[in-house]
Amino acid sequence: MSQPDAPSSPPRPPTTPTGVCDHAASGRLLERAETAGVRFINLEFTDVVGLAKCVTIPIEQFADCLAGGKWFDGSAIEGLARVAETDMYLRPDPNTFAVIPWRAEDANGDTGEGVARVICDVLMPNGESFEGDPRAVLRAALAVAEAQGYRYEVAPELEFFLLREEPGRIGTPLPHDRGGYFDLSTDLAADVRREIVWELGQMGVAVESSHHEAAAGQHEIDFAPADALTIADGVVTARYAIKAIAQRHGLLATFLPKPFYGVNGSGMHVHQRLLRLSDGSNAFANPADTAYGLSAIGRQFIAGQIAHAAGMCAIIAPLVNSYKRLVPGYEAPVMINWGRVNREALLRAPRVAPGAHEDARIELRSPDSSCNPYLAFAVMLRAGLDGVARGMTPPEPIEEAFHTLDEQARLRRGIAVLPATLGEALAALQDDPLAQEALGQQIAGWFADAKASEWETYRQQVHRWELDRYLPLF
Predict the structure, then answer these.
(1) Helices (H), ranges, 279-430
(2) What is the CATH number of domain 140-467?
(3) Cα–Cα nearest to 427, from 349, 322, 310, 338
(4) How far apart are CA 66 and CA 54, in angstroms?
(5) DSSP assignment string, 72-134
(6) Is the predicted pLDDT of residue 67 greater than 60, yes or no?
(7) Can you tell me the distance from the alpha carbon of 267 to that of 242, in angstroms, rounded to the nearest whole number?
(8) Which of 190, 191, 189, 160 is nearest to 251 (CA)?
(9) Which of 85, 253, 337, 386 has CB atoms 3.0–4.6 Å from 246's, for a disulfide?
């Protein structure tokens, strides 16, 4: 990136939740870096669509960066839509410092220089948060929850495929392994998955469990619950770490929601709960509710997410391909309702162990692994809080399989459906003022413009299926 014409050190910003790294904390980080042999630091942030970006600095500049940030060309955070170029700066969050465990190797097998990363907030030259920074959007949503006395905690289930690329078949890679749901295996893919969990742990990303998923070549890692900002940082880290570790073994890792026709797609189910700031108790828990273990607040949170399910769909399922996953028959949600044992439900209230009512949680099943986690968690939280603030009542839960309901039965029960295409999802986003507010005017506009362009380009394409289907007939 080009270096803008700016002062060598940006002005000190106002105090924020992470603050500016003080001298003692800076010294500790520099000692950690020296001990680990770090020579370069990646200053990481994300664009609007959630792709990881970074500015790399030598270790000699890290102390100055911790004290005052790093200027950069602000057009790098534009996402897919064009914006005016603005000089901005990155302020490292010292809590996110981590040494990257893997090393690049040259032809002789020698490891490269040590590299660490630190995730940054993007600030304007006057020290104020940049409205186009997805991390700032999530911070704003979390501040709304905190003002109401809550901490928002999430635990996503990140699904992905490990694939083997073959000469001449890059566009249609084959699954590397053939295991099924929870299958115990001893193949390369199982070894790679264990390596992923270990190296993520080394970077401070806590994984609660991992297993093989339903489709051939499909795997899942389950995050340990933590505050939403920590988890969003972890999801972004996990996506590039998984790709790097897979590549080291000659494999391709993909988070594409539906890479193969006729098999389950990859989602990112998110378990959520609100913890009271006053005492740390779970605001969703109610042991007296023998059916679902949910408090009134828990049910209101569900009602809010049901009310805004269509409006937030483009954010949590942001690709054209996402809507190839959200179809009947593959344990992905299509209808907007909730339940407990129903694997087709949009929202679930999973069972908890006897006496463990504080573990009560609400699982949203429409997000997929391609979303920007900062924006996704922000709209999910604001939707749920809207239900709480307005005292909403959710519809009656449905436990029978949704595919057994015909269209008339669905309509009689007042069950709406999720958008069927990215185009429909974008229209629903435009019609949802709360989702727009959660994103902020700048990101809402950029996201809508970028995704509308993406949808139009896709809509105008002629696909192989059309040629195979219609050429012989017409």
Answers:
(1) 296-307, 313-316, 322-325, 373-389, 407-412, 422-430
(2) 3.30.590.10
(3) 310
(4) 16
(5) EEGGGG-TTS-----EEEEEE-GGG-EE-----B-TT--B--EEEEEEEEEE-TTSPBPTT-H
(6) yes
(7) 16
(8) 189
(9) 253
Which tokens go with 9?
């050190």
pLDDT of residue 104: 45
Q: What is the mean pLDDT of residues 114-128?
A: 90
Contact status, residue 366 vs residue 316, Cβ threshold 8 Å:
yes
CA distance 57 to 115: 10
User: What's the pLDDT score for residue 291?
Assistant: 86
pLDDT band at 168 (very low <50, low <70, confident <90, very high): low
E-assigned strand segments in 395-460: 416-417
Identify the pLDDT of residue 309.
98
DSSP state of 48: T
The answer to whether 337 touches 395, Cβ cutoff 8 Å, is: yes
Residue 160 has pLDDT above 90, yes or no: yes
The band of 181, judged by pLDDT with boundaries at 50, 70 and 90, is very low
**Element (H or E) spanning 326, and its range?**
none
> In this predicted structure, which of 99-108, 220-229, 299-308, 436-445 has the lowest mean pLDDT?
99-108
Amino acid at 318: P
- Return the structure tokens found at 447: 């996201």
73 compared with 168, residue with greater pLDDT: 73
Tokens 């297993």 correspond to what residue?
A: 211
CB atoms within 10 A of CB 365: 21
Distances in whole angstroms, Cα of residue 84 to Cα of each of 44, 287, 436, 442: 21, 53, 21, 12
Contacts of 340 (CB under 8 A, 6+ apart): 292, 348, 349, 350, 351, 397, 399
Report the candidate in 379, 270, 398 with the shortest Cα–Cα distance to residue 337.
Answer: 398
Per-position b or e across 93-132, b if 16+ CB within 10 A of its CB: bbbbbbbbbbeeeeeeeeeeebbbbbbbbbbbbebebbbb
Q: Which residues face 91 on adjacent strands?
A: 121
> Taking the domains of the chain in order of start, what are their residue ranges?
23-126, 140-467
pLDDT at 424 over 90: yes
- Its CATH class, for the domain covering 23-126, is alpha beta
Buried b (16+ CB within 10 A) or exposed e, 229-262: bbbbbbbbbbbbbbbbbbeeeebbbbbbbbbbee
Beta bridge partners of 363: 271, 348
309: amino acid identity, one letter:
A
Give me the phi and psi of 336, to 5 degrees please.
-95, 95
Report helix, strand or coil for 203: coil
CA 1/CA 56 separation, integer angstroms: 10
**Across-strand partners of 273?**
153
CA dist 474 and 470 (Å) reads 6
Distance (Å) of CA 224 to CA 29, 154, 172, 183, 267: 25, 8, 33, 22, 17
